[in-house]
Design brief:
Elements (H helix, E strand, L loop, with lengths): L6 E3 L2 E4 L6 H8 L2 H6 L9 H17 L3 E6 L6 E11 L4 E8 L8 H15 L4 E6 L4 H9 L3 E11 L5 E10 L18 E3 L3 E5 L5 H8 L2 H5 L9 H9 L1 H7 L3 E7 L5 E11 L4 E8 L8 H14 L6 E6 L4 H9 L3 E11 L5 E9 L6
Parallel strand pairs: 5-6, 13-14
Antiparallel strand pairs: 1-2, 2-3, 3-4, 4-5, 6-8, 7-8, 9-10, 10-11, 11-12, 12-13, 14-16, 15-16
Pfam families: Acetyltransf_3 (PF13302)
Protein name: GNAT family N-acetyltransferase
């Protein structure tokens, strides 16, 4: 690749940076979102930094075997963002792709279009494998990766560094030259209109603002007693669970949901769904309610809402739920939702101080739905 090449595809233009781009580079790089997730950017980011990038930084990327493109609007040629290739490994035919977009251009598919355009250009000029690394909390960037045809490959522990000199994980998304075109299919698709509801109960994706409620719910003694091992969670673990809830959906790891009253929006509890065997289409479901909402059928309604979505949009073939044998209330919830008792697995779960707990398993098939 050479910096003289201009790439036009998918509704965007990739071109070299120009002196007139400086103000728009500042607009994009000084933005709080860019500053948070691109820790290599100077802070504060000024016009001096933008001019250095245009005059020296971007040319140095090209000299080093990478690519540094301005993303421009084909109609006006105004800068919308940037996309580039770094960390080239010619012997492996591999590079890392990254991008940022000005605030006013976000939400229009600009980053995904530019990533697709540069990926295809890179593959056409000899690259075999592209990596895209995202912060675990940067769900917007993860959606870009999926829209551009990248597949989640795993977590790189402590591979990223923050402005406070701390370390954090990075999620690795990969696209190969012979991968099929188009967006990557997800194991856990979004809920229709962002929710499931029967007009009495509503399920929505867990969000960062739900941490206090989730901590209050999951640290209750009776909730702790029915999990394995029966150890109360820390505040930090619950906060992280909420911060990474959307990422869990996008990577296909787990769908975490809040159960709310449909009329008032008041939180009633939580539920979750995660694959236990992707190849067999099998997933596990769990739930918990705050005391004021128990005995009113909310847990049963939540399961009845979640199961058809799992069998339909998510394409699962079988749902299971594990319970401790004396959790009679949970058994009744599952049976009312159509689950069947299948097996008692003795000493299957970890308990406290080296003890083991039995696991009573229930299962639901599409034909069992009530």
């Amino acid at each position: 690749m050479t910096p003289q090449q201009v790439v036009e595809a998918h509704g965007v233009r990739l071109r070299p940076f120009r002196a007139g781009d400086a103000a728009d580079v500042v607009d994009g790089c000084a933005d709080p979102v860019s500053q948070r997730f691109v820790s290599s950017l100077p802070s504060p980011y000024t016009e001096v930094d933008a001019r250095w990038w245009i005059d020296a930084g971007a040319p140095a990327v090209w000299t080093g075997g990478g690519a540094a493109y301005a993303i421009a609007d084909p109609a006006t040629d105004r800068l919308l963002g940037a996309v580039g290739l770094s960390c080239p490994l010619p012997e492996r035919g591999q590079a890392e792709i990254g991008y940022w977009v000005r605030p006013a251009a976000r939400g229009r598919g600009v980053a995904a279009a530019a990533t697709r355009a540069l990926s295809e250009h890179a593959f056409a000029t000899g690259t075999a494998r592209l990596e895209l690394l995202t912060h675990p909390e940067n769900a917007a960037s993860q959606r870009v990766a999926l829209a551009a045809g990248f597949r989640y490959e795993g977590s790189r522990r402590s591979a990223g560094s923050g402005r406070d000199a701390g370390r954090h994980d990075l999620l690795a998304w990969v696209r190969l030259a012979d991968d099929p075109p188009g967006p990557t299919a997800r194991l856990l698709p979004d809920l229709p209109d962002g929710m499931l509801t029967d007009q009495v109960v509503t399920l929505r994706r867990l969000a960062p603002g739900d941490a206090e409620l989730m901590y209050r719910l999951h640290s209750r003694p009776e909730v702790v007693a029915n999990q394995a091992p029966p150890v109360p969670p820390t505040w930090e673990a619950i906060e992280r669970r909420c911060l990474l809830a959307e990422s869990g959906w996008l990577t296909g790891d787990i769908a975490r949901l809040l159960i709310t009253d449909a009329a008032t929006g008041e939180p009633a509890g939580s539920c979750g769904l995660s694959y236990t065997d992707v190849g067999r289409g099998e997933a596990s479901i769990g739930y918990a309610l705050l005391p004021d909402w128990r005995g009113r059928g909310y847990a049963t309604r939540a399961v009845r809402l979640l199961a058809p979505w799992a069998f339909g949009s998510a394409g699962m073939a079988r749902l299971t739920a594990g319970t401790v044998p004396d959790n009679i209330a949970s058994h009744r919830v599952l049976e009312r939702a159509g689950f069947h008792r299948e097996a008692l697995q003795r000493a299957s779960l970890p308990g406290l101080t080296g003890t083991r707990l039995d696991d009573l398993t229930f299962a639901l098939l599409p034909a069992d739905l009530r």
